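Form 12-C: Joint structure prediction
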Amino acid sequence: MRVACEVNGVAVVREVAPGATLLDFLRYDVGLTGSKEGCGKGECGACTVEVDGRLVTSCLMLAAQVEGRRVRTIEGLGEGHANLLHPVQAAFLECGAVQCGFCTPGFVMAAAAVVDACARHGGRAPTAREVEEGLEGNLCRCTGYQKIRVAVARGVEIAAAECSRKGRDGAARAGTPRTIRKGDAR
Amino acid sequence: MVARVRGARRFVAGGTDLVVKAKDGKLAPATWIDVAQIRELRGISETRGSVVIGAATPYTEIIESKVVRRVLPALVEACAEIGSVQIRNMGTLGGNLANASPAADGVVPLVAYDAEVVIQRGARKRVIPAVDIATGPGRSCLGQDELITEIRLAKRRRNIAAFLKLGPRASMAIAKVSLALVADLRRGRLSDVRIALGAVAPTVIRATHAEAILEGNILSHDVIARARVAIAESDAIPITDFRSTAAYRRAMCAVLLGRALRVNSDDVGRSGHNPLR
Ligand SMILES: Cc1cc2nc3c(=O)[nH]c(=O)nc-3n(C[C@H](O)[C@H](O)[C@H](O)COP(=O)(O)OP(=O)(O)OC[C@H]3O[C@@H](n4cnc5c(N)ncnc54)[C@H](O)[C@@H]3O)c2cc1C
Ligand code: FES
Ligand code: FES
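Section 2 - Result
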């Protein structure tokens, strides 16, 4: 069957098997391999992406269910930010919140949702509870979570700094816009 | 439209039960019909006497709804305990009801609030109490092509509402026991008491014995003690499985009832406080 949707701001049309998951669609049909398959059952969050602005586990959503909808993956998260890195991505790098890295794309997507929600509420810091709840759908077997927590807190700071910088300089300074070719969903 | 699909067919909403089952090879092949984006099945509306929740409304929207927060706090508590952010952005009450798990967290408050479930097949509509949707573990009263369209909840003046869940850990855990309690407490006396239990019977059930002991009575230590015995010994009919034992589940029914009553009697009118979290 044919699926037409928007992935990271780019229109995508692909022929997919009716039972294909959104995760398989992204990885094998669109070629975006950032989202990972850990459990395939909604438990680990490694496959987390955004559909119409809400986080979902793409291993449990069918590709057919994103027809006409907007999908954002880890590859598109940094768009419009300094160095094409979302504040949470910059913070994960800075804090070393990554070991094997398999869980990282999912954690970054979930953490970015927490940080962005706070940024929308005037840049206040999330409570420990909010961070915990925001990340409850993601598992990491390497880091012990401590550095991930630190990185989320740092991500909030970077986002706040970015926000005030944008306020001063106008939105134009927010990273170098990349040229997006048709069919290139990255 | 549904009738045009030839052969076996089934509905899918959030897919959080169905896709997992399909991957486990537990489903016969069928054409899946996506209902998640059907506008008539989504959203929350309010009439003078009731709140109507579209069957395909994701949990997150229910939790964020001002009217649900005001009128149905135990439902908000329960939805907030389901899965994770991602699962709550996908999963729906329609799926929770139709899936008919005895541990369905969303169904427990629906039963306590006497929710009515609207089921439609073509032009034929029927309305079934939430407690009667499941007929056994994983079995429901839904016939071929019957679609749950909405859930109706009456607005009633009740100042006690609680949902409590015991699982192996705080997030992403299937309940060992869950309980929802709603009631009205005026001058120490309880009325309009409804208690629902999850994971202690083949389906989500009402704790009618405990309700009868509490109804119309002053909330005293003696009444609470008798209700605790009734809920553990007469209402709960649990089994021992890999999640828990029957004895533990019985004991925890009493504990959760005690907590629900104490939380609310110390702190009447303010729900949303969950001592287990
Ligand atoms: C990681 C994870 C954690 C979870 N945690 C919890 C939890 O804490 N508590 C809990 O209760 N559940 C939990 N679940 C189970 C699941 O998320 C819920 O039962 C959810 O409500 C199912 O809704 P859905 O829309 O995803 O259903 P689907 O998977 O789309 O459908 C489930 C069943 O309902 C049928 N159906 C769906 N919508 C309708 C409709 N409108 N009319 C008729 N039939 C319909 C489908 O045909 C199918 O048989 C969890 C699942 C996962 C994967
Ligand atoms: S791969 Fe999707 S949640 Fe684990
Ligand atoms: S870094 Fe290896 S699983 Fe998280």
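Section 3 - Comments
The CA atoms of residues 36 and 102 of chain A lie 7 Å apart. The radius of gyration of chain A is 16 Å.
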